[in-house]
Write a structure and sequence with these properties.
This protein is of the alpha/beta class and 361 residues long. It contains 14 helices and twelve strands. Strands 1-2-9-6-5-3-4 form a seven-stranded mixed β-sheet, with helices on both faces. Strands 10-11-12 form a three-stranded antiparallel β-sheet. A two-stranded antiparallel ribbon has the order 7-8. Bound molecules: nicotinamide-adenine-dinucleotide and zinc ion. The site of zinc ion has 5 residues, from helix 11.
Amino acid sequence: MNSPFILDTDTVWYAIGDGSLEKSRNRLADFHRVIILVDENTEKFCLPVLLTQVPELASCNLIRVTSGEKNKNIAQSSYIWNELTRLNASRDTLLVNLGGGVLTDSGGFAAATFKRGMRFLNIPTTLLGMVDAAIGGKTGVDFHDFKNQVGLFVNPVGMIAEPLFLKTLEEKQWQSGFAEVIKYALIMDRELWSKLEGNRYAEIVDWNPIIVKSARNKIDIVRFDAMEKGVRKNLNFGHTIGHALESYYLKSFNEITHGMAIAAGMICEAWISSKVFEMECTQLDEIVQLIDANFERLDFERSNIPAIIALMQQDKKMRANKLLFSLLRKIGKASHDIEVDEKLIEESLYFYIDRKKCNQI
Ligand SMILES: NC(=O)c1ccc[n+]([C@@H]2O[C@H](COP(=O)([O-])OP(=O)(O)OC[C@H]3O[C@@H](n4cnc5c(N)ncnc54)[C@H](O)[C@@H]3O)[C@@H](O)[C@H]2O)c1
Ligand SMILES: [Zn+2]
């Protein structure tokens, strides 16, 4: 059995990898009062695992919400505030968010705003949550058609990423989290890239080192730049176009995962990188190849592109009316705050739908 990666900073306690829950047992048992936030899936699949590992939590109150991005909204926050009020939660109460990124985003937001801020701790139960969403203090909910439009930067007191929870995760959720793993490799971790190259997520046997490495990459970045003034923006690679696609599909009946949207966004933004930074064609083709081996292409058409670009204008990554991108200089190295013309964005979406090779456009 591997031992977990433990990091105790001034603000956040991190325990990541196999055995992290067991290692955190005393910490969790020490909180005076704990309320656990679950959705119907994490109540069924993950709560029993948590209570077996930390039996001291067995008598905690639960708050139950309905899963799904469509429910990551202010109505759900309001419901959580109601429940916290009903349960007489105080600022000293700890809210444990047991779930995927939707639940840790919205639970963190509800906790951070309740009575001007109660403590919360994230126990991510999806791959995406473990390597990304539960780390870094971005909390929030979607508003109207826009992703994460309302929210706060507030750190949890702790984050425990125990791969044991992943045993019950659906196939498409593994795939979704894998998009963020690819992102870390592309923006900052050439060594991780060489581990992923040629791989399909479904064939990976030992996830522990991949989870630990990815989560550590994110922790390193957010510790250095908590408020996203500089290098943290590199994490947005694939997300400017990806978020627009996610919002676009959120409005349709054909809901897609965050990772599916980001995978498409990374293809488009890698293409833009090849135009702006002259990233080598062979590298672009390698990137497209790995993403295509793991994700089906989304089915939007040329006529949908203006609506997708319009959604980008709502993105938080704008300056003087220009969209700002994080782009790749090469595999393993990114830069942020790069202004990109709308024309290039449009062409990148053509590159995507037409399944072109790097040197064909
Ligand atoms: N805050 C951040 O920095 C950040 C970063 C990346 C993504 N996000 C957000 O994260 C969200 C996506 O999170 P996600 O991909 O984890 O999806 P999710 O939270 O919707 O979870 C996916 C599904 O899996 C279920 N589930 C969770 N754990 C399970 C388990 N162990 N076994 C069986 N089923 C389980 C959930 O109930 C849900 O139905 C998006 O809203 C995105 O915006 C936030
Ligand atoms: Zn993401």
